[in-house]
């Protein structure tokens, strides 16, 4: 430990993700004393910048969110002193070799570990990896590369990208981020399931009627239309974030918490699923809406989006897992932009109580009387279980109440950002929360056929007003599988 050093190279240092997420996460780790004793952070990008200018740029995004400890600004100063910048082209071996010289200077002869964070567009991943891995071959510790989606846009392009990267790296060096796996409540999912006797025995088709994975944002593509239009909501959210949560939700008990054991179970469940069918998908796109004198734009009003684009900004889907545990249970997903609220949650709807003594007290809507477990990933993290109880009083009237674990009330410490956990794991070589290439292949296998069909048939999205609850088609889709969306009913 003491004679090794980690150089963290943020490639694409002046980009949005770097400024908003990566540098602040690195600072938070530093602040919490989680970074190794010897480390340096290097920004790398094309624009000309001095170290001082990089520090100035980074400093504007750092906050002392943890608590207002007095030494925060001092810590910031110390952190910024460890930040440097190197300007270079993304495909220039020469520029990366210059970076390497600087890194070696900082490493001062210690065992040198290198972590490259590729915060850049996917079309230059391979070039950067080629140059970076060449220059890093002088390092005598490990070299790891963090990549962010998009990992291709279908099964074929994703496989091609993997092949390209593997010319220069082995699988163990590639850390594919899905930042939803770094979220506190997603990490807690396995704890909830496997450490509480009251849940795991119920976690099957025998007791669970359906499971819903819901993602909504209350803003549109806002300037990201250029990227988004080439992908759409299914690739942007479902194929990765929601599917990853589904895999953790539905997998069998892993042998241990080791990365390979957990990822083996995740990939098994993904491979037990049938590819999504066109009849089980509803797509939507937001249109302009005026409310309270304010006009909210349509998706196609975004200057970077081609006129008449059919790219979905909303999708709902029903998926099935062909195994003994989940046969016949609908797994519903819903994801959309420019909806009425910002929320990400999992809803587990349990079956009816057989021969329920109290059926009469529920009136006609028996579905409303079943238990529902809600895991709110964000915002306002929490877990609550809807149970039936008697309204106090002399009459036998039933009510639904929540057994509620509300994180803000239970824990005073702020929840770390997903990127903090993931960066720390990458530095420590913990791969459990990163996507292995076979998981990625399995995820694409599920969505590629339907994505192609949607595009070939030019399926018209259902238009929904900005700020609404999305297209009504999502209800019909759910109803065909005897499901009501829990967030609306
Ligand atoms: C990203 C998507 O992966 O996740 C964005 O590309 C989306 O479109 C974002 O806004 C949501 O992440 P979070 O952590 O803000 O919920």
Automatic annotation (TrEMBL):
Belongs to the glucose-6-phosphate dehydrogenase family. This is Glucose-6-phosphate 1-dehydrogenase. Catalyzes the rate-limiting step of the oxidative pentose-phosphate pathway, which represents a route for the dissimilation of carbohydrates besides glycolysis. The keyword DNA-binding does not apply. Its EC number is 1.1.1.49. Keywords: Carbohydrate metabolism, Glucose metabolism, NADP, Oxidoreductase. GO terms for cellular component: chloroplast stroma. Residues 191-485 form the Glucose-6-phosphate dehydrogenase C-terminal domain. GO terms for molecular function: glucose-6-phosphate dehydrogenase activity; NADP binding. It comes from the Eukaryota. It catalyses: D-glucose 6-phosphate + NADP(+) = 6-phospho-D-glucono-1,5-lactone + NADPH + H(+). Residues 9-188 form the Glucose-6-phosphate dehydrogenase NAD-binding domain. Pathway: Carbohydrate degradation; pentose phosphate pathway; D-ribulose 5-phosphate from D-glucose 6-phosphate (oxidative stage): step 1/3. It comes from Aquilegia coerulea (Rocky mountain columbine). The lineage of its organism: Eukaryota, Viridiplantae, Streptophyta, Embryophyta, Tracheophyta. GO terms for biological process: glucose metabolic process; pentose-phosphate shunt, oxidative branch.
